[in-house]
Write a structure and sequence with these properties.
This protein has 115 residues and is mostly helical. It has one domain. Helix content is 67%, strand content 0%. It is built from 4 helices and no strands. The longest helix has 28 residues.
């Protein structure tokens, strides 16, 4: 009897999650994309450190890249990773409105900027 209740509970939770994930088709964003952003930013947010150093070196020179670029890159990497964890944990909740990304420049690590 306990096994049947456990299976029923599991199936109900699975149905609820699938409804939350796939019901967002009418929105500009949806829970599945928010989950994907969360996973990508959590696992690969640290890549932002290196791309920021490179961008700073191209625009301001090598000395700026090894000083200001490293500091700016660390801040951006920590920010992207923290936002990734937040989106990973809250992916079924449509906040910000309609599952819009918190970080848009770019939305994913090493991605193109959102328009």
């Amino acid at each position: 009897m306990k096994v049947n209740k456990a299976i029923t509970g599991f199936l109900l939770v699975l149905m609820l999650l699938s409804n939350l994930i796939f019901s967002g088709a009418c929105f500009a964003q949806d829970p599945a994309k928010k989950l994907g952003r969360g996973v990508a930013n959590t696992l690969f947010g640290w890549i932002t450190l290196f791309s920021t150093i490179e961008d700073t070196g191209k625009s301001d020179g090598v000395l700026a890249a090894v000083t200001y670029g490293v500091a700016k890159g660390l801040g951006k990497a920590l920010q992207r990773t923290a936002v990734g964890v937040y989106e990973l944990v809250t992916f079924p909740i449509p906040y910000p409105k309609d599952y819009k990304p918190i970080l848009t420049k770019p939305e994913f690590p090493l991605g193109k900027e959102a328009k």
